[in-house]
Amino acid sequence: MAGRFAPRTPTTRTTLRGGHVPVPRSFDLEQGVDLGLTLGPLRRGPADPTFRAGRDGSVWRASRTPDGPGTLRVAVRAGGGVAAEAWGPGAQWLLDGLPALLGADDDPAAFVPRHRLVAAAHRRRAGLRLTRTGLVMESLIPSILEQKVTTDEAYRAWRLLVRKYGEPAPGPAPDGMHVMPDTRTWRQIPSWEWHRAGVDDKRAATILRAVRVAPRMEEAAGMEGRKAQERLELIPGIGPWTSAETIQRSNGAPDAVTVGDLHLPGIVGYALAGDRTADDAAMLELLAPYEGQRHRAARLILLSGRVPPRRAPRMTPGNIASL
């Protein structure tokens, strides 16, 4: 997907929260992009303090960039293309990364469907692009929180910790939006606050090990997919599942298929072979024709809606705070 920037000057420039004026940018796309499909994986639950979807179709993100906190608003223009504004010390960094965020580094033409179901999903979801944030820690920390627990538990932990220890998003962000804590603040969270958020000692310790070497972790954003995963997996407690979930977002890695997931092998097996009992090995064999694009294939399978009927009861949420 190719695009070009055309700077746009606002008619008014009003100083907003944090003393920062909005920095505008427009982005004309040669091909359409579906903001919801492309940026949706960055949202950690419906109440994620760092992400908000507007009723007008716009998307708001609050991020901690190398230049500091920033808020980004992206919307599709009525005449086509995308318009964006950003606020805060990280505003320029966020706007410079806008093309990659919207999939400019992605190459959907490299994907060749090998199954009828995948081909149908590919046609219906033509606006899907693989986002690339260029930010590792903002995807790594919530991915660690999602280890071995229900998604609701992980989303709650992320929400509580970011709201309590993060900072309000710069600019006119919707109420309740926050930028995640900086590395120093993560290290200072008391053990009982992790427990109140439902985070066990193992996951908390993994996050603390990662934030201590955050600059080394962030370097993975500029690495090839497998090498990026290897960098993250140097941290005890970070395995292939967590590293894949992270670089899918930070690097836009099209081949970073998630292994070790409780549900994905059965979904892929059922969709492609009618086998709901498929394990990781069977899933990887089924996805082998998509080598180089296995993550995209898995996304399309999930978007197809063909999932095995539920038989087993849902995982019961735990209560770390009561232990």
From TrEMBL:
Q: Where is this region: Disordered?
A: 1-24, 46-66
> Which controlled-vocabulary keywords does the entry list?
DNA damage, DNA repair
User: Per its UniProt record, what InterPro entries does this chain match?
Assistant: Alkylbase_DNA_Glycosylase/TA, DNA_glycosylase
User: Please, which domain of life does this record's source organism belong to?
Assistant: Bacteria
Q: What name does the UniProt record give this protein?
A: DNA-3-methyladenine glycosylase 2 family protein
Q: Which organism is it from?
A: Streptomyces solicathayae
